Amino acid sequence: MKYKLSFCIVCMNRLHQLKETLLQNIQDNADYEELEYIVLDYNSQDGMEEWAKEHLSSYIDSGKVIYYRTPEPQTFSHSHSKNMAFKLASGDVICSINADHYTGKGFADYVNKAFNDNENIVLTTIDFHGTQKNYFPAKDVFGRVCVKKTDFLNVKGFDERMNRYGNEDFDFINRLEFAGVKRVFIEDFSFLNFITHSQAERYSLDEENLYGIYIRYAEPFASELLMMYKDGQFKTGLLINNTHLHSGDTCYAYKPKGYRYKLNIKDPGWQKGMWKDTLDGPSIDFYPNGTIPDFRLEKNIIDTHQVLESKTEDMVYYALTNVANIKKIMAFDYFFHNRSIMEKNLENRKIIVNDTCFGDGVLFKNFSSL
């Protein structure tokens, strides 16, 4: 059986990569007639539409490429953009092909054969459970996933609460497995080439908005973090080092208890609110729940260290000043957002997400409004 395939490419300000990969991918799969390319311009501001008009017109006229543009997003959401592209696809099997991915010659035939061998599968590079010996594809290709459109719709796509970079593909495939779809790995690495690029192109830590990070000792395996932002927001949480969490238990004296991640924020997670300087001295009021301050911290210096301390409780928060450590904490916080959603879905064996609509938005098709 020849499945109709849809290769879905979403792009926001990655035209420099799309120029290198898209035409090559079309050429490398030209022999497979039942194949369309869904190209979603996710409000790209780098001339993507003009390039598409100049270089994709013949493919658009033939129906090989369908070009969509949404003018609404201001930031990139992997989950929403993929949902949008996947819903627009007309293929029986839909594949996510990142803008920096080369499919390799004959990938469409490879996908078709895999689904003919077993139609109840999802093709992926993510070995979440560590079942494959010596299978180590680059993290750059974790976004490659091929799934039947009916299965995509059954689980209601990627979880759009996961609006940052990372783990949305992990979560999507985990939920497909809960629904009875088998995880199958792309084992031919000739289909997994990509353009290398910096982390800065993947995500931003919003360092300019950071006012400061403060840390307080809680237990040998735990420290309380206080992150304050220039826009008046703050959040606080208990950072757990899982490596040392059970260090007092003789069962784990020589071999630490296994955890997927070294660091975690203790439930119920981050507690958030607003902060502002007081008018009557060098102190800061914190408003976790509204307009009434819940606690106050005084600015002080202890042994040359900048601190925030409570005058009513024995609590001292030390300012982090090491740039590398600040970036590590900010990166942890950035990825923890999506990760925590994935972990809750995993714990609850959740299959269906996005209980309302998903993948919606204003769209223009082939340079005309829908």
Tag the structure with descriptive keywords.
8 helices, 2 domains, 20 strands, 25% helix, alpha+beta, globular, 370 residues, eight-stranded antiparallel barrel, Lipocalin, Spore Coat Polysaccharide Biosynthesis Protein SpsA, Chain A, single chain, nine-stranded mixed beta sheet
Q: What do you see in this structure?
A:
The chain is of the alpha+beta class. The two termini are 33 Å apart. Helix 7 runs parallel beside helix 8 (323-347). The strands form 3 sheets. The chain has a 9-stranded mixed sheet, with helices on both faces. It is globular, with a radius of gyration of 24 Å. Helix content is 25%, strand content 28%. The mean pLDDT is 91. It folds into 2 domains: 5-198 and 351-369, Spore Coat Polysaccharide Biosynthesis Protein SpsA, Chain A; 207-321, Lipocalin.
What is the CATH homologous superfamily assignment of the largest domain? Spore Coat Polysaccharide Biosynthesis Protein SpsA, Chain A
Q: Within the CATH hierarchy, at the fold level, what is the topology of the largest domain?
A: Spore Coat Polysaccharide Biosynthesis Protein SpsA, Chain A
Radius of gyration: 24 Å
What is the name of the CATH architecture of the largest domain?
Alpha-Beta Complex
Major sheet: order of its strands? 8-6-7-4-1-2-3-19-20
Q: What's the domain count? A: 2
